[in-house]
Design brief:
This protein has about 150 residues and is an alpha+beta fold. It has 4 helices and 5 strands.
């Protein structure tokens, strides 16, 4: 860990409600093909997108980046981030060549201390909607920003 001062708990809690700009994202056929191939799976029928697209589509579609998410939580370094969970909820199958509206926000942010270890737990929620506005998917990414020991 670095010797940077610990962010205040108030600055972490104040992140709740932070909204990303939002935008649109279309899953291209070539992108779906390569992602599916990386998983070792066969392509899905009927232009269905492989679920693994939810690792990056929501972040890019909401017009943010991993780097911005690190900065918002005041990460000391890449190695100071731990993954608590990725929760994916599918309301409809995701498809290639369909333009999704993507909105994102920080839904939870708080400090935890356990056995002297300090972590800030931040949850990023992203919603994907079909062109008609109907919900398609939601992903919640929860990271632990490790702050060291007290």
């Amino acid at each position: 860990m670095s010797t940077k001062p610990l962010p205040s708990v108030e600055s972490i809690r104040a992140l709740v409600g932070h909204r990303f700009p939002g935008g649109e994202y279309t899953i291209a056929h070539w992108e779906n093909f390569l992602l599916t191939e990386c998983t070792g799976a066969d392509p899905l029928p009927d232009d269905l997108a492989h679920p693994v697209v939810l690792f990056h589509v929501p972040i890019l579609g909401a017009r943010t980046s991993i780097g911005e998410m690190f900065a918002l939580g005041q990460a000391d370094s890449d190695s100071s981030i731990g993954i608590e969970s990725y929760q994916w909820d599918f309301f409809k199958p995701l498809r290639e060549d369909l333009t999704y509206r993507v909105e994102g926000e920080i839904s939870e942010a708080d400090r935890r201390e356990n056995n002297g270890r300090v972590q800030d737990r931040i949850a990023f929620r992203f919603d994907l909607a079909e062109p008609d506005g109907s919900p398609a998917a939601r992903t919640t990414i929860t990271w632990l920003y490790n702050r060291g020991r007290r």
